[in-house]
From TrEMBL:
Keywords: Kinase, Nucleotidyltransferase, Transferase. The lineage of its organism: Bacteria, Pseudomonadati, Pseudomonadota, Gammaproteobacteria, Pseudomonadales. It comes from the Bacteria. PROSITE patterns: GGDEF. NCBIfam families: GGDEF. It is an enzyme of class 2 (transferase). It catalyses: 2 GTP = 3',3'-c-di-GMP + 2 diphosphate. Its EC number is 2.7.7.65. This is diguanylate cyclase.
Length: 319
């Protein structure tokens, strides 16, 4: 009698522990009917154990990937061995809302999952146990770190004011395009341009207004380029554009579109409405430049020719 009382007490403690543990415990038969649904699952799903018992899991949670979970459970039952999945492979099995205040930026609970076989008296696997671990804190911290690293990587390659590529990164791409031309011989053009009389803008309206003009020029440039084109801020009010698969005539069409858009625009700043123009130089790559720097020099010479010709115009190198 005393032995039976010990057994009864042990069973009570075990049930109490299963109900209070901060891990989701779900026991399924091999037809995916719910046999056990502990307190963790009740709290996060809003569904009591009595309501879900003997119901097919997929009927209650249609969002669960049936084919994926079925393959996992079949393998566990066949091999009589555990299976594990992490939040990095699949963010969650049960789409529970995140209730942790520290990780409130995450909408849903990130979960690790263990699937364990449960054998009957015959030794055959009759059921499986899903153990659902809330790893939102870990996932949120790692995702935040990844976002920070991505932001740092972006900051190291982009110009902070305009969002265009910075000079070093853009020059590397000019070099790569030069090498691509040497290998394949496809037409490609380089453009250098700057804002006309930009010093007067700064002197008349201040550097903050000047920054607004630079940002405006960068935005208009991006909006008038193709997906394959690459723009960068070369320095100050000077910009560069790489136009792959484009000869000088094609580049001139693109540049005239950009130049006209800027000429017709008005930049609304806190101190004044500012209009501005740009001058642009184009260099179609040929076999003459011995390196990418000489190619850039040709585009720069075309830019200075545009300025010498009266500004607010596009010039092609050598013409």
């Amino acid at each position: 009698m005393a032995f039976k009382q010990v057994e009864a007490d042990s069973f009570h403690w075990l049930v109490d522990m299963l109900e209070s543990v901060e891990v989701g415990l779900v026991v399924l038969d091999l037809d995916f009917r719910v046999q056990v649904w502990n307190g963790f699952m009740e709290n996060h799903s809003g569904i009591t154990a009595s309501r879900i018992r003997e119901k097919v899991l997929f009927d209650v949670f249609p969002d669960i990937p049936k084919a994926w979970l079925s393959r996992k459970v079949d393998a566990v039952a066949l091999l009589n061995t555990r299976a594990f999945t992490s939040w990095e492979q699949r963010p969650y099995l049960f789409k529970f809302r995140n209730t942790r205040p520290i990780t409130g930026t995450e909408e849903y609970m990130f979960q690790n999952l263990t699937i364990s076989p449960l054998s009957g008296p015959s030794g055959e696997v009759e059921k499986v146990c899903l153990m659902v671990y809330d790893v939102t804190n870990i996932a949120s911290s790692k995702r935040a770190l990844e976002r920070a690293n991505a932001q740092l990587a972006k900051l190291s390659t982009t110009d902070r004011l305009t969002g265009l590529l910075n000079r070093g990164t853009w020059e590397n791409l000019v070099d790569a395009e030069y090498e691509r031309y040497r290998r394949y011989g496809h037409a490609t053009s380089l453009v250098m341009f700057d804002i006309d009389h930009f010093k007067k803008v700064n002197d008349s309206y201040g550097h903050l207004a000047g920054d607004e003009v630079i940002k405006h020029a960068a935005d208009l440039t991006k909006n008038n380029l193709r997906q394959s084109d690459t723009s960068g801020r070369y320095g100050g009010e000077e910009f560069g554009i790489i136009l792959p698969e484009t000869d000088a005539e094609g580049a001139q069409v693109i540049c005239e579109r950009i130049r006209e858009a800027m000429e017709k625009s008005v930049v609304e700043t806190s101190v004044a409405s500012i209009q501005y123009t740009i001058s642009m130089g184009i260099a179609e790559l040929s076999d003459k430049p011995e390196n990418y720097m000489q190619w850039m020099q040709q585009a720069d010479e075309a830019l200075y020719a545009a300025k010498a010709g009266g500004r607010n115009r596009v010039k092609i190198f050598g013409r």
